């Protein structure tokens, strides 16, 4: 049976029909999901019953090598013992909800900024797959912004002026904007990477803005001018007409293309309400090597 998709937003994002991704391994179905990623950039799969290892195994089948040099790994190992499985939760290693002053919680507040996973690495992230295990009773949504539609909405002169620009991405930069402090040893592990401001999907040919809160400066531009342009582009790209807001249900798996989207978590009372999600991100081995 062919897999169907129902559009969730005028520009991008779609919900897949009934499918158990744990059992998907044939090349035809995997390619159908990749083609849908090219078309929609964000896909929602409901009622997925992944274990940790099953989620990792599906990510490898779908797109190969996994991102394991996460920014949070510089602060210490996660509670799962596998850095390819990112802990997007407010739960400490002892199983209790993190205290407000917990350093890992303070670091995780950066997820509320518009960002692109693993843009601070070389190679950067391609597909992220976030699975909901525990969802609070209150709204704790994630917003996604369509960088293809945002690029298309720029005028011809602006699009031409962005071609060839390169941007330095640093997760220490994004966290420091929130007042988070790194030790010299942590900073040495998080040097950042340089990527084009305009990315091209080699399969579809679609161009997109490649932005993130990690984007610290435009190479070869004066820092103030570069940061103003990056700020203006982010404001443009996150206007309501380019944004899909996902309300989580237990079992949801959301896959997004980091080359063509940004996302952010919306705040909720994380000192009282438990939320546990697991994320796996694949590496974009086709990306041009960072300078």
Structural overview:
- This protein has helices at 27-40, 52-63, 103-108, 147-152, 156-162, 171-176, 184-189, 223-237, and strands at residues 5-7, 14-16, 42-45, 86-89, 125-134, 142-146, 166-169, 193-196, 198-200, 207-209, 215-218, 243-246, 253-257, 261-265, 276-283.
- It is of the alpha+beta class and 291 residues long.
- The protein has a single domain (5-283), classed as Double-stranded beta-helix (4-Layer Sandwich).
- The protein is globular, with a radius of gyration of 18 Å.
- The mean pLDDT is 95.
Output the structural class: alpha+beta
Number of discrete helical segments = 8
Low-confidence stretches: none
**Approximate shape:** globular
CATH superfamily: Clavaminate synthase-like
What does this entry show, briefly?
By secondary structure, the protein is an alpha+beta fold. 25% of the residues lie in helices and 24% in strands.
Features:
single chain; 291 residues; alpha+beta; Double-stranded beta-helix; 7-stranded mixed beta sheet; 3-stranded antiparallel beta sheet; 8 helices
Question: Helices and strands in order, then pairings?
Answer:
Elements: E1 5-7, E2 14-16, H1 27-40, E3 42-45, H2 52-63, E4 86-89, H3 103-108, E5 125-134, E6 142-146, H4 147-152, H5 156-162, E7 166-169, H6 171-176, H7 184-189, E8 193-196, E9 198-200, E10 207-209, E11 215-218, H8 223-237, E12 243-246, E13 253-257, E14 261-265, E15 276-283
Parallel strand pairs: 2-3
Antiparallel strand pairs: 1-2, 3-13, 4-15, 5-13, 5-15, 6-12, 6-14, 7-8, 7-11, 9-10
């Amino acid at each position: 049976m062919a897999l169907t998709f129902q559009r969730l937003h005028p520009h991008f994002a779609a919900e897949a029909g009934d499918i158990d991704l744990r059992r998907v391994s044939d090349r035809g179905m995997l390619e159908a999901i990749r083609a849908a990623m090219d078309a929609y950039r964000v896909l929602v799969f409901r009622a997925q019953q992944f274990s940790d290892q099953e989620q990792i195994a599906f990510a490898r089948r779908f797109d190969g090598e996994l991102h394991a040099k996460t920014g949070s790994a510089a602060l210490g190992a996660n509670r799962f013992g596998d850095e390819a499985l990112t802990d997007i939760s407010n739960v400490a290693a002892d199983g209790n909800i993190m205290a407000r002053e917990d350093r890992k919680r303070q670091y995780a507040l950066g997820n509320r900024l518009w960002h692109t996973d693993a843009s601070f690495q070389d190679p950067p992230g391609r597909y992220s797959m976030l699975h909901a295990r525990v969802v609070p009773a209150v709204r704790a949504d994630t917003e996604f912004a369509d960088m293809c539609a945002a690029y298309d909405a720029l005028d011809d002169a602006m699009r031409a002026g962005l071609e060839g620009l390169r941007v330095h991405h640093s997760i220490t930069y994004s966290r420091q904007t929130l007042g988070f402090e790194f030790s010299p040893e942590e900073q040495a592990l998080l040097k950042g990477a340089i990527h084009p401001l305009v990315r091209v999907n080699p399969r579809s040919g679609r161009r997109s803005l490649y932005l993130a809160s990690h984007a610290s400066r435009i190479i070869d531009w004066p820092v103030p001018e570069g940061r103003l342009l990056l700020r203006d582009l982010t404001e443009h790209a996150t206007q309501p007409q380019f944004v899909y807001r996902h309300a989580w249900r237990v079992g949801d798996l959301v896959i997004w293309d980091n080359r063509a989207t940004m996302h952010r978590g919306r705040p909720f009372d994380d000192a009282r309400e438990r939320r546990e999600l697991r994320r796996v991100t694949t590496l974009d081995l086709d990306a041009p090597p960072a300078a």
